[in-house]
Design goal:
alpha/beta; 33% helix; five-stranded mixed beta sheet
């Protein structure tokens, strides 16, 4: 997954796997919690149709306190290809949300931290955990909960010519609520997959989060 410390620390190349994904040849996921990872592995083991499973997740999530699961999350439940925002999806709140941020992977926790500062004005943050096969029906159902959303953002840490953007953008456009527009929040096109300098990485990371959540 993306760590930002340099090309060798950010070379998972999600975009290349997604370019190769067709005809159900393998499965691609980017989990954000231990429970999601656990249930995904269980589902993979039980699948009758055997296909390789590719999981993108950086090691930094191993040490992130927010990226934890309760024991009950492991002993019950299932893998969710799409995780709705537990706060914003409450019906009374969902109808007033005008910005919807979609993302995948550990960037969610950075976005969540910034969004929490905005209280009732925070955008809804939706995680797409299953990238291929693309969970079109599930995403459509989540988007339908936010009829007032006009600004729909795909946020990613990778440069624009990398990551999931080019794969996911054309699939999202047809699912948007009426009157909504899709835009990109992430690094511009780059030759290298990462900044390589901690200060430059932190600066760009902060800009992406503010662009997605709202300055």
């Amino acid at each position: 997954g993306y760590e930002g410390q340099g090309p060798e620390h950010s070379s998972a190349r999600i975009e290349r796997f997604l370019q190769l994904a067709a005809e159900g040849n393998f499965r691609v996921a980017n989990c954000t919690t231990p429970a999601q990872f656990f249930h995904l592995l269980r589902r993979q083991a039980r699948r009758v149709r055997v296909r390789p499973l590719v999981i993108f997740t950086p090691k930094s999530l191993l040490r992130l306190p927010q990226a934890g699961s309760h024991l009950a999350d492991l002993t019950s439940g299932t893998f969710h290809a799409v995780l709705d925002d537990p706060e914003a999806s409450v019906q009374a709140r969902a109808t007033t949300v005008n910005r919807l941020v979609l993302c995948s992977g550990k960037l969610y926790y950075d976005l969540l931290s910034e969004a929490a500062k905005r209280g009732d004005q925070r955008p809804a943050i939706v995680r797409i955990e299953g990238l291929y096969t693309f969970p079109e029906a599930l995403i459509g159902a989540v988007l339908a909960k936010y009829p007032a959303a006009r600004d729909v953002v795909w946020a990613q840490e990778e440069p624009r010519n990398m990551g999931a953007w080019n794969y996911i953008a054309p699939r999202l456009v047809g699912l948007l609520p009426e009157g909504a527009a899709l835009r990109y929040a992430g690094r511009p096109e780059r030759a290298s997959p990462a900044e390589g300098y901690p200060t430059a990485h932190a600066t760009e990371q902060g800009r992406i989060i503010l662009d997605a959540v709202g300055g």
